[in-house]
Structure formats: C-alpha cells, structure tokens
Amino acid sequence: xxxxxxxxxxxxxxxxxxxxxxxxxxxxxxxxxxxxxxxxxxxxxxxxxxxxxxxxxxxxxxxxxxxxxxxxxxxxxxxxxxxxxxxxxxxxxxxxxxxxxxxxxxxxxxxxxxxxxxxxxxxxxxxxxxxxxxxxxxxxxxxxxxxxxxxxxxxxxxxxxxxxx
Length: 165
Known about the structure:
Elements: H1 3-7, H2 11-18, H3 22-35, H4 47-60, H5 64-71, H6 75-91, H7 100-103, H8 129-138, H9 152-164
Helix pairs in contact: 4-6, 5-6
C-alpha cells in the first residue's frame, strides 16, 4: 500500500494499518528525508513509501519477497531499504532504545516467576487378569475357517437330528 493511499485514511485506520500514529509517522518521515539526502539515481519508492515498507515489515512480519511483490521491487531492494531506514531512525536517537546499562538500573524492580514444567507420572489403570481375559474373548478370528460358520454338511446333520427328536 502506497503513502498516497494511506494519507487519506482516518487517524484510527492509519494507526491500525501502520502501528504508529500519524504524527509519529510524520516525525519519522522528516528524519528519514533529512538524513538520507538525494544523491545518485532516484529511488523507485519515495521516502514515505520506504518508511511504510519498513513499518509493514515490522508490524506484519511479512517476508521480504511478499513486500517486494506488493511494491514492485526486488527482495534485495526491500532488504537494503529496511536496513537503511532502521539505521537512520536509530542514529536520530529519537527512536533509539536505551542501552543495557539504562535497562539494568537499580530503580527497576524485576519480578521473576518460575514455572516447574517437569514431567510427572500419569496414573493409568493396571492390567488385570480379568481385563486381559476379556480381550481374549472379544478378539476376532484370524481366518475364515474359525469364523464359527459351520459348513453345509454339519448344519444339515444337526437339522436332521432335531427333526428325529
């Protein structure tokens, strides 16, 4: 999505799509335009589009290949653009994260929660003689001869015996 399209969105929709407020985006854009001068061959994307591309990468975790397809540029150009915009914003110190020492100051109280996620034995029913015996009764025959079907002669003899009695 290009900046021309994004520019017409409401404040709420702009923040939903980019992850930053419009005023923050404008500040970022001004820093990028000041730090990255116009030299050499003109880029295919404007500075605002380059910033949107970087925000899209940060916000949506899209691959550089898919971002390149959306903007009509190569994957390597997307990678270079993201690195260039990131480095420019970091150098400005307005969008710079504090260093380790600032994060590890004594004024910050840390709360640590440990969770014991070791394996625990699971109670399962024991195999008893009755359950094993029941399985043998229910088991199915292995061949057609053991199916319990009597052949024609034996059933005929049994029928004759019934009639005689």
